Every structure is written in structure tokens, then in C-alpha cells.
């Protein structure tokens, strides 16, 4: 079942966010052990009103367990949603100023992942489709995302769903394809 996330989903979703974010989770945790970022993501997920909040997340639940999630938001709100996260990170690293990974005019997929025991079953595809339907229902004509150029499997998945490359972005030390999908607003 696909449903909106709740604050109570934090223990299941935080590790999924880390899987999706990979090296970025390590940057946020200040550690090479990405799991050290779990409390960070649980905190922001539960709080809401930020780019990793439950209110910007859809989950895939099976047998009362969250096994997949997708987090995203209106790209025009990036700075507003990122502010609480940056405020905390900049307490220990005042010079931390990441570039923008999204922009106005797109409903942005920030993180999508499925628990490793459930990958390959089409759950990620269903979450992406649900997110695109949400974007259309909110009146957005375009869904955007970035995919690391060293992850061709993810790029193929998005291409198979109709996303196309519209550019490149440097973000947090990696080079990404900027991909978009046009949707029909409702």
C-alpha cells in the first residue's frame, strides 16, 4: 500500500533516506559510517516542514512495515525547506553551503529508495509513479530529479519511466544528470 508518511514512520524511513543519499549522508553525519546520520534524518523527518520531513514523503507499506519511501517537494521551496537543515549543519560547519539541486518549475524527487530485501519488485517504480501523480494533482507540469552519473542503473530506471536528461549539476562533490518528466497538471 502506498500512503502519505507519518512522523511515526521515522525509524523505518531514516535508513531508507541514507540508502538514497549515499555519500551525502556521510557528509551530514560528519562520518564515514553513514548509519551515524540516522538520528539526524529521524529528527528532521519527525519535525516536518523541511526537505526531509514526513509531510514531503510517501511510503510503501507491506504487512504493516514501511519498505520504501520517496521524498520530494516543490523546487521553488528548496531554500525555505532546506533552512532548518542548514541551520543545524552550519553550527558545526559555518562554511557549508551546498549548491541548489532543484529549481522553481519542477516538483523535485529528493530521495527514493526501497529496503534492500525488497528491491527488484517494482516498488521504486510504483513510488515514483505515485509521486508524479501527486505532482500533477498539485498542478505541477514537471517532475525533476538528479541522478549520480556513476549510477547508470538508476538513470535507466528513470529513462524507462519517461524521464529525460535536460542538463548536468555538480552537487556535494559529485556530477549528476538533471532529469525531468513532463506531467499533465490536474
Overview of the molecule:
- By secondary structure, this protein is of the alpha+beta class.
- It has one domain (2-140): Gcn5-related N-acetyltransferase (GNAT) (Aminopeptidase, 3-Layer(aba) Sandwich).
- Helices cover 37% and strands 27% of the residues.
- It has six helices and seven strands.
- It has helices at residues 10-21, 23-29, 38-47, 78-92, 123-137, 152-160, and strands at residues 2-4, 57-62, 65-74, 107-114, 142-148, 164-171, 174-182.
- A seven-stranded mixed beta sheet has the order 1-2-3-4-5-7-6, sandwiched between helices.
- Strand 2 (57-62) and strand 3 form a beta hairpin.
- Helix 1 (10-21) crosses helix 3 (38-47).
- The protein is globular.
- The chain starts with a strand and ends with a strand.
- The relative contact order is 0.14.
What is the CATH architecture assignment? 3-Layer(aba) Sandwich
Alpha carbon gyration radius: 15 Å
**How many distinct domains?**
1
The whole-number mean of residue pLDDT values reads: 94
Assign the CATH superfamily.
Answer: Gcn5-related N-acetyltransferase (GNAT)
**CATH topology call:** Aminopeptidase
Helix-strand makeup class: alpha+beta
- Model regions low in confidence, pLDDT < 50 over at least 5 residues: none
- Shape call: globular
Number of helices: 6
User: Could you tell me the strand content as a percent range?
Assistant: 25-35%
Amino acid at each position: 500500500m502506498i500512503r502519505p508518511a507519518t512522523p511515526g514512520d521515522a525509524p523505518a524511513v531514516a535508513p531508507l533516506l541514507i540508502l538514497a543519499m549515499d555519500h551525502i549522508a556521510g557528509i551530514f553525519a560528519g562520518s564515514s559510517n553513514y548509519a551515524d546520520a540516522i538520528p539526524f534524518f529521524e529528527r528532521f523527518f519527525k519535525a516536518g516542514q523541511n526537505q526531509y520531513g514526513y509531510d514531503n514523503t510517501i511510503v510503501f507499506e507491506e504487512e504493516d512495515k514501511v519498505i520504501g519511501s520517496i521524498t520530494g517537494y516543490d523546487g521553488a521551496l528548496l531554500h525555505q525547506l532546506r533552512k532548518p537543515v542548514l541551520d543545524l549543519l552550519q553550527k558545526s560547519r559555518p562554511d557549508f553551503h551546498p549548491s541548489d539541486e532543484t529549481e522553481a518549475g519542477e516538483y523535485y524527487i529528493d530521495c527514493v529508495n526501497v529496503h534492500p530485501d525488497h528491491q527488484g519488485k517494482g516498488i521504486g517504480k510504483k513510488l515514483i509513479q505515485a509521486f508524479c501523480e501527486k505532482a500533477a494533482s498539485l498542478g505541477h507540469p514537471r517532475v525533476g530529479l538528479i541522478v549520480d552519473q556513476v549510477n547508470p542503473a538508476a538513470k535507466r530506471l528513470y529513462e524507462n519511466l519517461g524521464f529525460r536528461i535536460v542538463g548536468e549539476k555538480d552537487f556535494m562533490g559529485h556530477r549528476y544528470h538533471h532529469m525531468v518528466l513532463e506531467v499533465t497538471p490536474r
